[in-house]
């Protein structure tokens, strides 16, 4: 199996950022997320450099939904990242991490009155998803005596090669305003007393392993930019979203690089803005590509059971990594204490959750796992802990950061008291 540069095998043990995964599991216990902060910083620099080589006025926004750990967001903030935020919680985290409000975009198709009020209060730009939302935001801004800077989210109606649950630019998607209706939306925004349209936004999906869809989306966006510029919109930015995928199948996925992405997208963008006679900033929103490969989920083997399959029963399941159950997603798995040993059988890694679908990895060729072993689930940094739950009343695990020669907790493990902390007992049930 090909391993990225921050993962290595030393003395038969898997290492992340130079740290022995088995030793980390012994120190902190399992299950355990381990994240290499240096890998995240390096990924960010590479992505930004690929785009700014073509156009210096490029701002990389981290798609905060991918990983909401404050230490991760602070690492990216220190590199100059902004963020695409999808809730008031993500907005507050980005601000706490030190991100500047002008580098944040408040996205989402169903914002509450409280969300809109917070956006106005903090002065972040809002990606408006409907005409009704525009009118609500105008009223909230008027009540606060302020003006809200906005972009509209465009639905480009593009088919993309990814799982349908994460294809967000389809004609049938819940996100955005159809491209053919967008000029009328901007005309209304221009007439609204407490709205200033300053950008345009789209996002076509996630885990896309081809670059052509991104080039096509950029083409749609610059065409729309020309139309709205003609009616008087002064565009400060064009946000073409994120979605570049990573190679979960390390040996076979095509995995386009940021450089290949830039080669496909930037000529379309640059030609389009030249023809419009405008020079807006380019905003992009990678999430998975920045953090996906930065983390491993270390799980402990409880037992091995031979039935119609040989099940390796471990101490984490879709309560901590839901992607395999939700999307039929693939993650490489490695027996961390015998990482270079030859496979001697086919095994299915099964979690402890009371669901038949709680399988982290099916039918994998591995060296025989035994009770007490540690298995590393790779590429768990995006939509891993961020989508975890307390199902079956299982407290969520710790997260550990590594950087250089250091390692430390960046989120402690929950206890049962954390599960019950928000529960109340009505007096009439006592």
TrEMBL record:
Subunit-structure text: Homodimer.
Residues with N6-(pyridoxal phosphate)lysine modification = 65
Q: Give the classification, highest ranks.
A: Archaea, Methanobacteriati, Methanobacteriota, Stenosarchaea group, Methanomicrobia
PROSITE patterns assigned: ODR_DC_2_1, ODR_DC_2_2
Q: Which InterPro entries match?
A: Ala_racemase/Decarboxylase_C, DAP_deCOOHase_LysA, De-COase2_CS, De-COase2_N, De-COase2_pyr-phos_BS, Orn/DAP/Arg_de-COase, PLP-binding_barrel
Q: Quote the gene name from the UniProt entry.
A: lysA
SUPFAM superfamilies in the record, alphabetically?
Answer: Alanine racemase C-terminal domain-like, PLP-binding barrel
Protein name per Swiss-Prot or TrEMBL: Diaminopimelate decarboxylase
Return any one Pfam family short name: Orn_Arg_deC_N
Q: Tell me, what does this protein do in biology?
A: Specifically catalyzes the decarboxylation of meso-diaminopimelate (meso-DAP) to L-lysine.
Instruction: Cite the entry's keywords alphabetically.
Output: Amino-acid biosynthesis, Decarboxylase, Lyase, Lysine biosynthesis, Pyridoxal phosphate
Pathway in which this enzyme or protein is active: Amino-acid biosynthesis; L-lysine biosynthesis via DAP pathway; L-lysine from DL-2,6-diaminopimelate: step 1/1
Required co-factor?
pyridoxal 5'-phosphate
- Orn/DAP/Arg decarboxylase 2 N-terminal domain segment(s): 43-291
> What species was this sequence derived from?
Methanofollis tationis
> Into which family does the record put it?
Belongs to the Orn/Lys/Arg decarboxylase class-II family. LysA subfamily.
- Active-site positions, per UniProt? 354
């Amino acid at each position: 199996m090909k391993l990225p540069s921050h993962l290595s095998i030393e003395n038969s043990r898997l290492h992340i950022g130079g740290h022995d995964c088995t030793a980390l599991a012994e120190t902190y216990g399992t299950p355990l997320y381990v994240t290499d902060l240096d890998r995240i910083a390096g990924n960010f620099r590479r992505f930004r450099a690929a785009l700014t080589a073509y156009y210096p006025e490029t701002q990389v926004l981290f798609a905060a939904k991918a990983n909401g750990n404050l230490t991760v967001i602070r690492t990216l903030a220190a590199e100059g990242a902004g963020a695409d935020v999808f809730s008031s919680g993500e907005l507050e985290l980005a601000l706490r991490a030190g991100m500047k409000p002008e580098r944040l975009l408040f996205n989402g198709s169903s914002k509450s009155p409280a969300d809109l009020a917070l956006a106005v209060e903090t002065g972040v730009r809002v990606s408006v998803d409907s005409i009704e939302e525009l009118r609500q935001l105008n009223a909230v801004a008027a009540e606060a005596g302020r003006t809200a800077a906005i972009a509209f989210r465009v639905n480009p109606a593009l088919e993309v090669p990814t799982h349908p649950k994460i294809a967000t630019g389809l004609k049938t998607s819940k996100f955005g305003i159809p491209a053919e209706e967008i000029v009328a939306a901007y005309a209304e925004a221009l007439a609204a007393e407490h709205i200033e349209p300053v950008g345009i936004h789209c996002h076509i999906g996630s885990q896309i392993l081809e670059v052509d869809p991104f080039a096509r989306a950029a083409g749609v966006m610059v065409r729309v930019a020309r139309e709205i510029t003609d009616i008087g919109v002064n565009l400060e930015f064009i946000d073409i979203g994120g979605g570049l995928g990573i190679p979960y199948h390390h040996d076979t996925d095509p995995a386009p690089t940021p450089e290949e992405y830039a080669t496909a997208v930037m000529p379309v963008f640059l030609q389009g803005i030249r023809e419009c006679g405008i020079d807006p900033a380019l905003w992009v929103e990678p999430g998975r590509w920045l953090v996906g490969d930065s983390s491993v989920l270390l799980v402990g083997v409880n037992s091995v059971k031979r039935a119609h399959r040989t099940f390796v029963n471990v101490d984490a399941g879709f309560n901590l990594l839901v992607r395999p159950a939700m999307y039929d997603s693939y993650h490489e798995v490695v027996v961390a204490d015998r990482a270079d040993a030859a496979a001697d059988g086919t095994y299915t890694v099964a979690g402890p959750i009371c669901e038949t679908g709680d399988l982290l990895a099916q039918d994998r060729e591995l060296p025989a796992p035994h009770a007490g072993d540690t298995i590393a689930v790779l590429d768990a940094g995006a939509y891993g802990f961020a989508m975890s739950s307390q199902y079956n009343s299982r407290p969520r695990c710790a997260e550990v950061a590594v950087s250089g020669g250091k390692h430390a907790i960046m989120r402690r493990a929950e206890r049962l008291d954390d599960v019950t902390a928000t529960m109340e007992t009505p007096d009439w049930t006592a």
